[in-house]
User: Which sequence fits this backbone?
C-alpha cells in the first residue's frame, strides 16, 4: 500500500485531566514546533533548540495574557513517539487550561487529533510494531462500541438529538435547493431566495446557541472546582458536610489523599461540584505542614470558585484575602459569613450569610455559586450543550459554511453554488453524530414532492 | 464461428456500447442478442439525456462511445435543460425518432470491425474453475469466449402486468430471458426483483393539439457529441412536445381501478423507482395534488404514436382509456397501446467490482439494468466501461476505473458497488459531490485522453483537444495578469450597475461579477500584444471554458481542495485478498460490510455505509505492514 504522508499537525491532551495533577498536551506533525513557538514565550525559540530538550516559559493567548506557566519538551523527527516533529506541553492540571491551550494551537494550523491518531502515525512511521498498534486499535474500537451502545451520558444524548434536528433542517433546506436543480422540469414550486436565507439564518442562530453553551457545557462535563478557604474553626468542614447531606446524590467520596486537602464530589441540580476543604495556606514553621500548604495553594490556583469562609466570631483576615487574589481572581471569590445562628453583631464583609448548623442561607449560596459559574445564562441540564472541543469545532465549521452559503444566496448565485456550502455544513454536523450518507437529500425529495413522469 | 474473445449478451444500450468499444479496441466481439433489429431499441421514453443523464451521454461520448452520435443523428427536438442556472447543471436532452434510433444503432454495430452480430437466445452461462468459458443458447448451441458481458436489461424472467393480467416478456412484444438467472444463482450469486413501468401510446391524429400548450426545442440546438458536424446539425426536421394536465375527475376514474391494480393488490413484488412513479402512485401518495403535468411526446417523424410522459400505469386497459379521455386535449383520443409494468431480475451490484467484473467469476461482467439501474444513459455508461475493461483484461492491460472526482460515470459505479441499491438507480446531479467540476461542457477535457489511449478517439480529434487545453490554460493565466484601468472601464461598469474601480482590476477578477461577461472585458485587451486572445475569440468552446473557469473560480478551487484532501485515501489501495474477518479490532458491522464489498481503496472503504471512521483508522494501521 502507498504510504500515507501526514502533512498536517495534530494535537490532543495526552493525560486524563484533574486538579492537582499535571496534564500533558501532545503536538505532532511538521508544524508542531513552530505552532507551539507562536503561543509560547520562553528564554529562547523552540525552533532553535535541540531534540529532547525541556524549556520553561509561559503560554500566551492572542492578547498576550498569560494562560499558564508550562514546561515544553521538544522532540525532533525521527526521534519522537510518532516519528514526526513533536512537542509535549506540561501544564497545571486544570482541564480548562489544557483545553484553552489546545484552542490556541488550533488557531495556528494545528488540528485536533482523532482517537488513536498519534499511535496511527507512530505505526505508519515504523515507530511501533503491529502488535502494539493492534492493541491500540482495540482500545479505540471498544470505546466507539461503547458509545454506540448508548453508554454516553444524558448530556451527549441531548446534544446529538439537537444536532440531528439541525441536520434535518439542513437536509430539508438542501432538498429545496436540489429540487430545483435535479427536477427543474417538474411541476413543483421552488424556493425563493429570501425564504432560503431565512432558513439558513435560523440554523445559524441555533448553532450559535450551541457554540455559546460551550463554557457551560464544559463545566457540566468536567465539573466545577470549589475551594473552601478560611481560618481554622470558621466552619469549613461543617459546611462541606452540610453540602454532602443536602446533595441528593453523592457522586463519590474520595478520602483525603493527604491529610491536608479533602475532596468530595457532589451533584447539585445535575452539576458536578468538586469541593476541596483546604487546611490552610499560610506558610508554617512546621515542616510537615509545609507540603500541605503547597498543595492548598495548588488547589486554590486551579479552582473555578473559592468560598472564602469567615464566622461571626473572628475578624476578617485581609492578608489571607490578598493572598487569594494573587493565587486566583477576585471575581471567583465568594465571601461567606458562617454561624449566623449565633446572632452576633459583626461588620465583616460578606456576599452571603449562612449557618452550617441550621442550613439557613445554604440554598442561596448554591444559587450564587451557579450564577458565578454560568453567568446569568439560562442553560440548564435540560438544554443541549456542547462540552467537547471536537464538537465545538465541527459546529464552528458548520457555521462558517452556512455563512458562505448565505453569501452565495445574497449574491443570487444559482442553487448548485449554494448547495456546495450547505453540503459542507451538513458534513460537519454529521461528523458530530458520526453518520454520513449522501442519499438523505434525495430520499427527502422523493417523500415530500411529487416527482417523476 | 463459435468463439469470440468477448461475448456480449443483449444489444440494448449497455450491450451496444460494450460491444462497439471492445471491438474498436481490437478484440473479436460477438454481440449475441435475441433480435438484431431490436439493437439500441428504446423500451420506454423516446428521449435521450435530461438532468444528469445528459452529463452521462456527454461523458460516454468523450470516451468514444456511440450514444451521443446516434442521438444527434436521430433527434427531433433538442433542449438544454436548466439554462437559467449555473453551467454545472445545464443538461442536454433530446426527443428521438424511436425507429431511426435503433436503425442507426444497428448500422453502427453492423459496420464496426471485429464485431459480429448473432441472433440467439442465451439460457446458460458456462464456467470452468470460477472462470468464464462461454454461453449456451436455448437450442443447445454453445459459444466460447474469454470474457462475457451480460447486459440483458429488463429481460431476466421478465413479467409484464396490465391490471390483473400478466404475461411473460421482457418488453412489449418480446420474449423474456429464462435460465440465466438460475444459472447465476447456482454459481452463488444473489438476485433480486425490480419493477418499472411505461405509459400508454396514443394516436397522433386523435389529439386536439390546438388547445394544448406547445413546448418547442431550443432555437440554437446543441448536439451531444463532440464529433457531430455542426454545419449539418440538426439532421432531421424538429418537432414540438405539448403539455396537458390530469384533473380530479381523472383521478376519480383511476381510483376505480385500484382494486385491479397489480401494484396495490400485491401481485407485483418488485420494487419500483420512487422518482418515476406510476400515475396511480402519484394520486395515492400526493392525494392533495389536484393535477399532474403530462408531456405529449412525438415518437418519430413518421410515427403515428404519441408517448404520454407522466402517465405510466399498470391499471386495467379500460380504466386507463376512460381516464385519458377526461384529460384536456385527449377527449377524442385513440389508445394504440395501454401502459404496463414490467418486473425483472437484477443482481444487487455490490457483487461487481468497480470495473464491473463480478467478484465471483473471473471474466464475467455485468452492465446496465442488470445492475439495478434504470435508464438508457446509465446503461450506456456502464456498457462502455465494461467493454473497455473486458478488452483491457484480454489484452493484459490495467483496469480502468473512473473516480468520483472525474466523472458521473465514476459516481454511478462507485455508488452501485458501495451502496448497492434496493430501488432502480437513476443518476441525479446531486449525487455528484464534485458537481461544479463535472460539467457537461468539459466532459471532453476530463475524459477524452482516456478514450484516445483506448483507441476509441482518433488522433486528430485528440490533438485538437490537447491544443485547446493549452489555449484555455494560457488565457486563464493571462487574464489574471492583465489589469484594466479605472479610467478605461468605469464607463462600462456604470452602465452595468457594477461598483466602480478606484485604480485597476484584473480581467479575471472583474469577470467574476455577475453583471459582467468576458466578452465585454476582452474589448479592453490589446490583441496585437496578446495574439492568443484572438485565437480564443475564434474558438467558441474554449472561450466558454475560460469564462466558466474564471467566473466560478473560487467555488471550483474549493471543490478541487476537497478532492485533494481525499485524494490520498483514494490512492491508498487495499489488496482484494485482505481477510477482514481476521481483523478483530473492526466493528462487527464494518467487518461484515467490508468483507462483502471488498473495497479497492481506503477512500472507497470510507463510503461504505456502516463502516465507521475508527474502522478506517484501524484499516490504515493494518495496511502499513
Ligand atoms: C416497460 C419499460 C419501462 C421503462 N421505463 C423506464 C423509465 O420510465 N425510465 C427509465 O429511465 N428507464 C425505463 N426503462 C428502462 C430502460 O429501458 C432501461 O434502463 C435500458 O434500456 C437498459 O438498458 P440495457 O442495455 O441494460 O438493457 P435493454 O435496453 O433492456 O436491452 C436488453 C437487450 O438484451 C437482449 N437480451 C436479454 N436477454 C437476452 C438473452 N438471454 N439472450 C440474448 N439477448 C438477450 C434483449 O433482447 C435486449 O435487446 C423501462 C424499460 C421498460 C421495459
Ligand atoms: N453555631 C454554629 N457552629 C458552627 C457552625 N459551623 C461550624 N460550627 C462549629 O464550629 C466549630 C469548627 O467547625 P469546623 O467545621 O471544624 O471548622 P474548620 O476548621 O473551618 O473546618 C465546630 O465546633 C462546629 O460545630 C454554624 O453554622 N453555627
Ligand atoms: Mg476542618
Assistant:
Amino acid at each position: 500500500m502507498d504510504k500515507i504522508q501526514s502533512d498536517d499537525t495534530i494535537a490532543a491532551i495526552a493525560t486524563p485531566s484533574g486538579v492537582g495533577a499535571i496534564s500533558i498536551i501532545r503536538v505532532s506533525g511538521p508544524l508542531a514546533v513552530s505552532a507551539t513557538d507562536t503561543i509560547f514565550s520562553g528564554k529562547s525559540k523552540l525552533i532553535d533548540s535541540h531534540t529532547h530538550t525541556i524549556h520553561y516559559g509561559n503560554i500566551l493567548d492572542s492578547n498576550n495574557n498569560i494562560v499558564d506557566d508550562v514546561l515544553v519538551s521538544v522532540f525532533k523527527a525521527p526521534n519522537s513517539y510518532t516519528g514526526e516533529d513533536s512537542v509535549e506541553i506540561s501544564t497545571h492540571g486544570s482541564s480548562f487550561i489544557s483545553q484553552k491551550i489546545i484552542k490556541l494551537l488550533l488557531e495556528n494550523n494545528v488540528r485536533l487529533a482523532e482517537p488513536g491518531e498519534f499511535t496511527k502515525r507512530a505505526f505508519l512511521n515504523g515507530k511501533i510494531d503491529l502488535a502494539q498498534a493492534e492493541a491500540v486499535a482495540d482500545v479505540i474500537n471498544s470505546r466507539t462500541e461503547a458509545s454506540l451502545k448508548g453508554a454516553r451520558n444524558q448530556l451527549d444524548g441531548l446534544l446529538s438529538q439537537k444536532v440531528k434536528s439541525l441536520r434535518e433542517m439542513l437536509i430539508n433546506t438542501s432538498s429545496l435547493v436540489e429540487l430545483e436543480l435535479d427536477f427543474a422540469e417538474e411541476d413543483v414550486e421552488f424556493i425563493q431566495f429570501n425564504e432560503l436565507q431565512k432558513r439558513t439564518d435560523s440554523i445559524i442562530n441555533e448553532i450559535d446557541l450551541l457554540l455559546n453553551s460551550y463554557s457551560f457545557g464544559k463545566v457540566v462535563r468536567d465539573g466545577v472546582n470549589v475551594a473552601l478557604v478560611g481560618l481554622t474553626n470558621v466552619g469549613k468542614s461543617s459546611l462541606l458536610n452540610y453540602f454532602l447531606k443536602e446533595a441528593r446524590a453523592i457522586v463519590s467520596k474520595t478520602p483525603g489523599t493527604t491529610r491536608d486537602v479533602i475532596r468530595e464530589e457532589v451533584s447539585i441540580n445535575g452539576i458536578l461540584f468538586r469541593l476541596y476543604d483546604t487546611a490552610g495556606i499560610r506558610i508554617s514553621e512546621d515542616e510537615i505542614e509545609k507540603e500541605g500548604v503547597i498543595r492548598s495553594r495548588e488547589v486554590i490556583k486551579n479552582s473555578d470558585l473559592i468560598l472564602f469562609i469567615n464566622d461571626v466570631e473572628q475578624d476578617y483576615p485581609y492578608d489571607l484575602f490578598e493572598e487569594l487574589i494573587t493565587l486566583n481572581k477576585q471575581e471567583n471569590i465568594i465571601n461567606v459569613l458562617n454561624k449566623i445562628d449565633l446572632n452576633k453583631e459583626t461588620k465583616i464583609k460578606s456576599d452571603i450569610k449562612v449557618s452550617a448548623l441550621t442550613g439557613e442561607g445554604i440554598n442561596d449560596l448554591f444559587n450564587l455559586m451557579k450564577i458565578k459559574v454560568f453567568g446569568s445564562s439560562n442553560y440548564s441540564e435540560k438544554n443541549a450543550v456542547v462540552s467537547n472541543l471536537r464538537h465545538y469545532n465541527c459546529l464552528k465549521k458548520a457555521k462558517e459554511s452556512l455563512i458562505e452559503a448565505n453569501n452565495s444566496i445574497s449574491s443570487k448565485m444559482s442553487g448548485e453554488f449554494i448547495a456546495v456550502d450547505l453540503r459542507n455544513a451538513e458534513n460537519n454536523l454529521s461528523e458530530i453524530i458520526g453518520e454520513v450518507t449522501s442519499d438523505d437529500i434525495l430520499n427527502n425529495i422523493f417523500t415530500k414532492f411529487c416527482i417523476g413522469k | 464461428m463459435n468463439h469470440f474473445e468477448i461475448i456480449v449478451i443483449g444489444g440494448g444500450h449497455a450491450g451496444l456500447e460494450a460491444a462497439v468499444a471492445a471491438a474498436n479496441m481490437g478484440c473479436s466481439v460477438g454481440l449475441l442478442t435475441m433480435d438484431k433489429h431490436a439493437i439500441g431499441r428504446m423500451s420506454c421514453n423516446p428521449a435521450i439525456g435530461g438532468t444528469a443523464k445528459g452529463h452521462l451521454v456527454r461523458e460516454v461520448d468523450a470516451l468514444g462511445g456511440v450514444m451521443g452520435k446516434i442521438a444527434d443523428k436521430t433527434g427531433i427536438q433538442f433542449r438544454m435543460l436548466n439554462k437559467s442556472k449555473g453551467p454545472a447543471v445545464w443538461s442536454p436532452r433530446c426527443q428521438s425518432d424511436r425507429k431511426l434510433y435503433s436503425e442507426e444503432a444497428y448500422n453502427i454495430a453492423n459496420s464496426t470491425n471485429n464485431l459480429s452480430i448473432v441472433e440467439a437466445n442465451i439460457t446458460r452461462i458456462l464456467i470452468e474453475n470460477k472462470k468464464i468459458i462461454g454461453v449456451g443458447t436455448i437450442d443447445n448451441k454453445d459459444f466460447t469466449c474469454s470474457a462475457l458481458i451480460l447486459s440483458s436489461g429488463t429481460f431476466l424472467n421478465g413479467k409484464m402486468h396490465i391490471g390483473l393480467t400478466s404475461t411473460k416478456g421482457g418488453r412489449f412484444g418480446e420474449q423474456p430471458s429464462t435460465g440465466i438467472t438460475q444459472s447465476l444463482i447456482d454459481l452463488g450469486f444473489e438476485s433480486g426483483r425490480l419493477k418499472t413501468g411505461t405509459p400508454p401510446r396514443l394516436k397522433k391524429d386523435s389529439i386536439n393539439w390546438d388547445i394544448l400548450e406547445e413546448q418547442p426545442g431550443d432555437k440554437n440546438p446543441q448536439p451531444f457529441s463532440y464529433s457531430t458536424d455542426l454545419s449539418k446539425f440538426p439532421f432531421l426536421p424538429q418537432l414540438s412536445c405539448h403539455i396537458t394536465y390530469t384533473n380530479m375527475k381523472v383521478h376519480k376514474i383511476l381510483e376505480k381501478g385500484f382494486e385491479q391494480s397489480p401494484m396495490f393488490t400485491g401481485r407485483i413484488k418488485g420494487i419500483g423507482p420512487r422518482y418515476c412513479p406510476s400515475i396511480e402512485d402519484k394520486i395515492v401518495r400526493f392525494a392533495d395534488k389536484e393535477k399532474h403535468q403530462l408531456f405529449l411526446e412525438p415518437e418519430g417523424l413518421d410515427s403515428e404514436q404519441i408517448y404520454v410522459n407522466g402517465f405510466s400505469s399498470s391499471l386495467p386497459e379500460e380504466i386507463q382509456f376512460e381516464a385519458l379521455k377526461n384529460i384536456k386535449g385527449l377527449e377524442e383520443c385513440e389508445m394504440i397501446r395501454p401502459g404496463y409494468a414490467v418486473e425483472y431480475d437484477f443482481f444487487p451490484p455490490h457483487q461487481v467490482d468497480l470495473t464491473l467484473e463480478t467478484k465471483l467469476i473471473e471474466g464475467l461482467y455485468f452492465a446496465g439494468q442488470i445492475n439495478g439501474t434504470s435508464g438508457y444513459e446509465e446503461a450506456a455508461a456502464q456498457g462502455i466501461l465494461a467493454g473497455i475493461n473486458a478488452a483491457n483484461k484480454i489484452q493484459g492491460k490495467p483496469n480502468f476505473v473512473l473516480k468520483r472526482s472525474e466523472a458521473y460515470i465514476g459516481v454511478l459505479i462507485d455508488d452501485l458497488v458501495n451502496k448497492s441499491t434496493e430501488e432502480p438507480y437513476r443518476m441525479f446531479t446531486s449525487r455528484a459531490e464534485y458537481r461544479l467540476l463535472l460539467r457537461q461542457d468539459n466532459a471532453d477535457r476530463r475524459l477524452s485522453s482516456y478514450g484516445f489511449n483506448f483507441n476509441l478517439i482518433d488522433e486528430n480529434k485528440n490533438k485538437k483537444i490537447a491544443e485547446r487545453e493549452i489555449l484555455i490554460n494560457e488565457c486563464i493565466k493571462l487574464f489574471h495578469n492583465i489589469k484594466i484601468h479605472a479610467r478605461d472601464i468605469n464607463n462600462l461598469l456604470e452602465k452595468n450597475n457594477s461598483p466602480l474601480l478606484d485604480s485597476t482590476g484584473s480581467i479575471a477578477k472583474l469577470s467574476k461579477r455577475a453583471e459582467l461577461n468576458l466578452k465585454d472585458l476582452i474589448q479592453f485587451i490589446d490583441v496585437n500584444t496578446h495574439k492568443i486572445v484572438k485565437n480564443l475569440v475564434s474558438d467558441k468552446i474554449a472561450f466558454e471554458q475560460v469564462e466558466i473557469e474564471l467566473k466560478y473560480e473560487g467555488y471550483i478551487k474549493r471543490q478541487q481542495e476537497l478532492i485533494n484532501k481525499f485524494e490520498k485515501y483514494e490512492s491508498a489501495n487495499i489488496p482484494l485478498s485482505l481477510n477482514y474477518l481476521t481483523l478483530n479490532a473492526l466493528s462487527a458491522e464494518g467487518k461484515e460490510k467490508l468483507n462483502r464489498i471488498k473495497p479497492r481503496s481506503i477512500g472507497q472503504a470510507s463510503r461504505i455505509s456502516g463502516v465507521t471512521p475508527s474502522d478506517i483508522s484501524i484499516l490504515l494501521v493494518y495496511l502499513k505492514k
User: Anything to note?
Assistant: Chain B touches chain A through 65 residues (CB under 8 Å). The mean pLDDT of chain B is 93. Residues A 236-237 surround magnesium ion (ligand 3) (CB under 6 Å). The first strand of chain B starts at residue 6 and ends at 9.
